[in-house]
Structure formats: structure tokens, C-alpha cells
Amino acid sequence: MTALRFVLRIGLMFGLLVAPLAAEAEQAEKSPRIGLLEYAPFWGEPLREGLRDLGYVEGQNVSFVYRPSEGRSERLPELASELVRLNVDVIVAYGTPATRAAKQATATVPIVMLGIGDPVRTGLAHSLGRPGGNVTGNSTLGPDVWSKRLQLLREAFPRVSRVAFLWNPVNASNTVAFQEAKVGAQALRMTLQSVEVSSPDRFESAFVVMRKELPDALLMTADQMHLLHVDRVVDFAARNRLPAMYQVKGNVMIGGLMSYGASLPHLFRDGARYIDKILKGAKPADLPVEQATTFEFVINMKTAKALSLKIPPSVLAQADEVIQ
């Protein structure tokens, strides 16, 4: 074998070894990066499941950049800006505060919002059909959901007339929810007591207020910060034998009494479709905001018995799930 042929053969072998590595490097470089703002496992896991169903596998053809605020909404603008600087392809945000922070941080990076209360009234979308800008996603909107929650409380406990409404005034969707709940309460001739909790260190003072005002029941939103500390609310309701209506099924699974609201895991899994379309070239402005279609009424009978509360058969018959 001549020296030239030897060199050519070695070069060919080297090329065959390097080519797959170069291809893998190129593929890894092209893999989309998805920023998860206000990340929490209860919504991140269903989202990743939805993406896996569409062929996106973490570590293979997609990567995630996690930025949780850990209940500190004042950190959201900084976290959103970090995701923009890291050049993620899409930002996924749960809740109104996170979505607003993302929208303020960028007008070009696509944003998928999940579980938003009312994106139009909170200024996140021009309309549901044509959101405009760089934001789209799904919403927990439904027909008179806050009135429905109050109605179910009244049917379960006819003597309920004073209801404490635990909400976060920093969350624009909570402000809308409070206004809607007031309308529902007036129609049912109930009194709605505003109990504001805007940071984790304000729960105890809120509990003191409720013990003084002695409401007949408690109504709570699905604010991200509140959900991170919902065990404190569930414990307070149990210690004070206070019937409580939650927005999220998961709150009932850990000991809350009742919940009525959109299926959040369904919305989170469905959010994967938006990401897929955007990564394939769709513009958020052209993707309509979808409203929730699946609503669940869940009752925890273990909690009812522990609180010595009797749930009428007519209310139990309306439940989608009864935890025994």
C-alpha cells in the first residue's frame, strides 16, 4: 500500500467516525429550548407528558430551562429577562403574573400562557380569537364559574351567608375573579369578605382576620403563590371547621373539602400543542386562545366527616368525583 493510499484510507475512516458526532452536535444545537417561567411540578409534569406525546423528549430533541419564583412574584420580571437573555425559543408561563412578566420582557419571543383567568380583561390578549402580539395559550374561563362555586356552597350548606374570599391583589386575574365573585354573592344574597394575601408571610395575618370576622365558609383562587402554600389554608380550614371551596382538584386531594373548576392537568397537557405549532412556524398572534371545556366538581368526604359536616345527597349527585 502506498503512503498516499494509506493516508487516504485513514482520512476516510476518520471522516466516518467524525460525521455522526458532527451530526449529533448539529442536532443538539438545533434542539429547541423551552423556558418554563414560574415552574412547578404540578403543571410542568403534565406539560412534558403532552410534549412527549408529540415526539419531544427532554435531553434528545428538546431541552428545558426552569425558572421558578418559589412564590415570590416580585422575582418574575428578573426571571423572565433571564430566559430572554438565554435565547429560549418559547417561554411557557403559568398564571397571569408570570405571563405579564414575560410579555414585558420581550415582544418577539413566543409566549404560551397556561391556566389564565381572563387574558382579555387582564390585557394579555386583544381577543380570544385573535390574541395578537407574541402571546397565546389557554384559559380557565367558563360560564359564571365563581357564581357556580358560591351556588354549590349554598346548596351544600344552606346557612352559609358570609364567605371569606382569599385572593392575591397582585394577580390581575384574581382581581377579575374577586369582581365576578362579588356579583355572584350579591345574586345569592351573600356577603363576600375580602381577605388579601400577596406574599407568603401574610398568611398568618389573614388567618387572624378570618378568626375575628367569623365567616361561614372560605373561597380560594388558584393563584400560584397560594397553591404553593395551600396546605396552610387547608390546615386553617380544618382547625376552624370552616367549609372551603377551592378552584383546583389537587387541593381537595390533600384534604380540602370541595373544588369546582377547569381541569388544570388537561390544560397543561394541551399547552404542548401550542408549543409544537410555534416550533413549526406558527405565530402566536394567529393561534386563538382556547377556553377550558372540562370542569370538575370534587368532594372529599373524609374531610367532611372530620369536620362533622353533612353533604346533602343532591349535592353529592352533582359531583364528578367523591373521595371516600
Name of the top-level CATH class of the largest domain: Alpha Beta
The spatial strand order of the largest sheet comes to 7-6-8-9-10-12-13
The best one-word shape is elongated
Q: Helix share of residues?
A: 40-55%
**Mean pLDDT metric:** 90
Residue fraction in strands: 15-25%
* Derived structural class: alpha/beta
What is the string of helix and strand elements? HEHEHEHEEHEHEHEHHEHEHEEHHE
Structurally, the number of domains stands at 2
Count up the helices.
13
User: Any guess at the CATH architecture of the largest domain?
Assistant: 3-Layer(aba) Sandwich
Which fold name corresponds to the CATH topology of the largest domain? Rossmann fold
Radius of gyration: 24 Å
For the sheet with most strands, the description reads: 7 strands, mixed
- Low-confidence segments: 10-28
